[in-house]
């Protein structure tokens, strides 16, 4: 299975864990919530759904609303199929959610993993964030070395493009640093002596900075400094 197919499987299972959906709803949620899937089509979605059904992780049910049934009877078309997560599917999603290796934080997969951090245990979130930061720090070091070697031979526009790339990576590293520190602070508050609460390793976002309460850059804002 390719990395893209694997992250699509993960995202479908995660969305269906929230509630059953038919194919149109799934595609809409994947497009609007997870940027990595903005360009994918029904020709990609439905083969993946069929595979998940064959594996026993999803079941297909006819559309359950009266409107769906009426529309199907009037048009002679097949009723919409609703996909529902099975117990085995929930177990499979939990297995994928707990993974912290490189597939969790590479460019193609990190956004989808981050989108489900609310359902991810705190220790797993930390390992994924730290893995992503380490990977980007390695990339930044290589970019800086390459820039130093080639800057005398490149024209101004190529140099500006390289600077832009380095600044984008630097911004994400700063963002990750703030997320990691916030996660640590939230965990420390829950495990501090006298706090009256045990350490929280659930999917709650405890120490995550909220909008208006943090100066961390927006990762989608390529113009922020």
Automatic annotation (TrEMBL):
Residues 126-160 form a coiled coil. Residues 182-225 are annotated as: Disordered. Residues 12-95 form the Transcription regulator PadR N-terminal domain. Residues 182-191 have a biased composition (Basic and acidic residues). The keyword Coiled coil applies. The keyword Coiled coil applies. SUPFAM superfamilies: Winged helix' DNA-binding domain. This is PadR family transcriptional regulator. It comes from Streptomyces mesophilus. Gene3D superfamilies: Winged helix-like DNA-binding domain superfamily/Winged helix DNA-binding domain (1.10.10.10). Pfam families: PadR (PF03551). Keywords: Coiled coil. It comes from the Bacteria.
């Amino acid at each position: 299975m390719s990395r893209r197919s694997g992250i699509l499987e993960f995202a479908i299972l995660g969305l269906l864990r929230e509630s059953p959906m038919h194919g149109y709803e799934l595609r809409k949620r994947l497009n609007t919530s997870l940027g990595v899937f903005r360009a994918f089509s029904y020709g990609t979605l439905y083969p993946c759904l069929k595979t998940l059904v064959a594996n026993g992780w999803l079941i297909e049910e006819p559309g359950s609303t009266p409107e769906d049934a009426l529309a199907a009877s009037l048009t002679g078309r097949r009723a919409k199929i609703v996909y529902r997560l099975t117990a085995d599917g929930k177990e499979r999603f939990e297995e994928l959610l707990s993974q912290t290796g490189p597939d969790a934080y590479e460019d193609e997969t990190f956004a989808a993993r981050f989108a489900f951090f609310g359902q991810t245990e705190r220790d797993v979130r930390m390992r994924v964030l730290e893995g992503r930061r380490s990977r980007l720090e390695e990339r930044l070091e290589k970019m800086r070395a390459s820039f130093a070697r080639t800057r005398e031979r490149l024209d101004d526009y190529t140099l500006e493009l390289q600077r832009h790339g380095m600044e984008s990576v630097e911004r994400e590293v700063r963002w990750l640093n703030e997320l990691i520190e916030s996660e640590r602070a939230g965990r420390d508050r829950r495990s501090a002596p006298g706090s009256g609460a045990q350490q929280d390793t659930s999917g709650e976002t405890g120490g995550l900075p909220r909008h208006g309460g943090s100066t961390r850059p927006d990762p989608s804002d390529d113009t922020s400094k």
